[in-house]
Amino acid sequence: MDFQGSLFEAPAVEAPTFDRVERRPLTGGAWIDVCRTWLPAPDEVFTTLVHDVPWRAERRQMYDREVDVPRLLHTYAAGEPLPHPTLARARGALSAHYRPELGEPFVTAGCCYYRDGRDSVAWHGDTIGRGRTHDTMVAIVSLGDPRRLALRPRAGGSSISVEMGHGDLLVMGGSCQRTWEHAVPKVAHAGPRVSVQFRPLNVF
Ligand SMILES: O=C(O)CCC(=O)C(=O)O
Ligand SMILES: [Fe+2]
């Protein structure tokens, strides 16, 4: 065995770890976990996602007219291969780490591409499916330019916000989807940002 050589061989894809994760409890049984610079090799993942994801623009009915959804989207369903091996590793690491609390793996990967500061997502909870009635988790990995994720309690009260930087992880857990709402507000100036949201089955 070439022991000497193996000492200097980096693993093909680094596994993300959770020793730096910080939990912030919110009201009503909601919480968020944040870990800065969590994803290994984020530059490469970002470039791959921008180029290789089959991004699509969506239009949505808004009262009496159809409007553009202000961001590009693509969702990888359960069992579909992800566009970069680091994302598959990340999903596996998240599933293993949160399994005792979540009781199931993360299986889908929703991707959003915010082209500039005009792209955004309005206040909402991920309440289609089980998030409406049950505690669950949504794990977001942010890539590219930093953007603010704002959170506010549905019952009223002040909002909080977390700056999501390149490679950062933010996990919304507990009752967060049904007792709180989140948004990525428009800003005057921002470069491209991609967010990947890992969700368990039946959470949208
Ligand atoms: O871009 C983000 O970080 C959040 C996206 C989001 O909330 C969603 O797609 O449901
Ligand atoms: Fe969301």
Strand percentage lies at 35-45%
Uncertain runs with pLDDT below 50, 5 residues or more? none
Described by strand count, sense and barrel closure, the largest sheet is: 8 strands, antiparallel
Give me the secondary-structure category: alpha+beta
Distance between the termini: 49 Å
Bound molecules: 2-oxoglutaric acid, fe (ii) ion
Q: Note the overall shape.
A: globular
CATH class: Mainly Beta
Return the average pLDDT rounded to an integer: 93
Number of strands: 12
Q: What's the domain count?
A: 1
Strand order of the largest sheet: 1-2-10-7-12-5-4-3
CATH overall fold name: Jelly Rolls
Q: Helical percent range?
A: 10-25%
CATH architecture: Sandwich
Keywords: Dioxygenase, Oxidoreductase
Domain Fe2OG dioxygenase: 105-202
GO molecular function, one term: dioxygenase activity
Protein name: Alkylated DNA repair dioxygenase AlkB
Task: Describe it.
One of its GO terms (molecular function) is dioxygenase activity. With 204 residues, the chain is of the alpha+beta class. It has a single domain, classed as Alpha-ketoglutarate-dependent dioxygenase AlkB-like (Jelly Rolls). Helices cover 19% and strands 38% of the residues. The mean pLDDT is 93. Fe (ii) ion is lined by residues 124, 126, 182.
Give the arrangement of secondary structure elements.
Blueprint: H1 3-7, E1 22-25, E2 30-35, H2 42-52, E3 56-62, E4 65-76, H3 85-102, E5 108-114, E6 121-124, E7 138-144, E8 147-153, E9 160-164, E10 169-174, H4 176-179, E11 180-184, E12 193-199
Antiparallel strand pairs: 1-2, 2-10, 3-4, 4-5, 5-12, 6-11, 7-10, 7-12, 8-9, 8-11
Bound molecules: 2-oxoglutaric acid and fe (ii) ion.
2-oxoglutaric acid binds at residues 110, 112, 121, 126, 140, 149, 182, 184, 195, 197.
GO biological process, one term: DNA alkylation repair
Keywords: Dioxygenase, Oxidoreductase
Domain Fe2OG dioxygenase: 105-202
